[in-house]
Amino acid sequence: MATNIPPHNLGEVADALQYMIKNPECEIKDLIKYVKGPDFPTGGLIIADNQAILDAYTHGKGYFRIRAKWEKEDLGKGQYQIVVTEIPYQVIKSKLIEKIAQLLEDKKLPLLADVRDESAHDVRIVLEPKNRTVDANLLMEHLFKQTELEVRFAMNMNVLSSDGVPKVMSLKEVLREYLDHRHLVLIRKSKYRLDKIMARLEILSGYLVAYLNLDEVIRIIREEDDAKQALMKKFKLTENQTEAILNMKLRNLRKLEEEEIRAEFDELTEEKNGLEALLGDESLRMQKLSEEITLMKEKFGKKTVLGRRKSQFMDQPEDVEITTEVFVEKEPITVILSEKGWIRSMKGYIPLNEDFKFKEDDGLQCAIHAFTTDKIVLLDTTGKFFNINAHEIPSGRGFGQPVRLMAELGVNDNICAMFVFEKGAKYIIASDLGYGFIIDEGHIITQTRNGRKIFNLAEKETAAFCKKIVGDMVAVVGENRKLLVFPLEEIPTMARGHGVRLQKYQGNGKMTDIQTFKKEDGFQYNRSGGVANEKELLTWLGHRAQVGRLVPFGFPKSNKFFKE
Hints:
- By secondary structure, this protein is α+β, with helices and mostly antiparallel strands.
- It folds into three domains: 69-148, Gyrase A, domain 2 (2-Layer Sandwich), CATH 3.30.1360; 177-300, Topoisomerase, domain 3; 324-550, 6 Propeller (Neuraminidase).
- Helix content is 30%, strand content 26%.
- It contains twelve helices and 29 strands.
- The protein has a four-stranded mixed β-sheet with strand order 8-3-2-11. Strands 4-5-7-6 form a four-stranded antiparallel β-sheet, covered by helices on one side.
- A hairpin with a 3-residue loop joins strand 19 (426-431) and strand 20 (435-440).
- The longest helix has 42 residues, at 171-212.
- The two termini are 73 Å apart.
- The relative contact order is 0.08.
């Protein structure tokens, strides 16, 4: 009994068995030189390196990725089509095509135009790309992720051993169990044949006696009342020999020929001696097993039609990132978020200080420039990040839709920051009470509408800022109009937490803004309708968690570096 053991190439298994007979103490790494891996009857490509195969056969369980085999057919004039010639094991072709067709209908395969089945005796599934500019490899990688053109086969060599106990076995243990079984079968078969030969030799010995004393045998049969006992007593025959003679017709007795009897007797005696030698010598039995396995190899070897390996191996494919840029036309947009939490996009880059229209009692919270292929990152007041695709943001002349329809915000939670995701960027995140830390871009990405909690906030504390780091210095300002400048290196980088104090406030004081900048460039702020650039930092320079000094003359009354 076995569960979920994949089919294998019998020629490879035969080679491994013969190697194991000659080298009983061999290791699994030696055996996989012969057993390359599973060999599925439907072919396909197995994605697994030698280490993965070794691990699977060592532990008796593992996964194999099986991928459909395909080729690109040139149709001329830059046109092409993809033809799938082999599909993964246990995948039903009709259901596979139905799945692809359904995804096409649902517009989930934007790179594919059509699919059709041209199979006869062999598999031939034709895939037509959307246009000639579609990359064939990218199209297939998308199909591998979406359909059963690629599957994972879970191998579990849970085998019922010879002693009746089920266990997960390694490749060596399975082959050893097979050899032990064949060895046991050979012994039983040899003993059975030996018993038959011994019985036949007994009968032949009786026939020889009858032939040499034919007249006397006939007389006894005709004249004696108990012929059986008389024959046994006269010629010292066994009961079986006597029965055989008495059951033979007289005309057959006349036809007995000593040469034929002796020839059969000698032939069987020779076979008997061979079987007795075989049963008495394990090395001879192993040699006999090797000969039997050789016959299997001749029938199912790699050079035969039956033994040709169907499943081939391929290296681990490169991880192709299928981004929204592949499916969405890249266009510039302006994303607008209102104070009431309504979000919309407008085509093109509109000046961010534009007088945007909002519903009554609503106003601008944030506006950014982006592309339709971008991912927009939102931070709410509880310290949770959300991601939305820019092309999914409603556009038009209306007021958009509530951002809560795109992200699972709490009833009393609001968005405090919105920006375009940038690969490799780092951000500084801070609360209204002046605590914060640095976070890498990889920790702000989430795959669900529920978002990702990053900021562990205290009671009555809210997340307030998340800004991209552009230099090596930090400038922080509070409601008390105190400004503090200190090196960015004083802030730790964390994946999640409460962070450290950035600026100290008295009583219920709060942070109003934060800025990062290069030391040689200085920090900037609005002043008298323009932008002031403060490079002389000595007045405000200090260390993290200090109070700071009064803001420079002309600093905005809003206590923010730039008006919103």
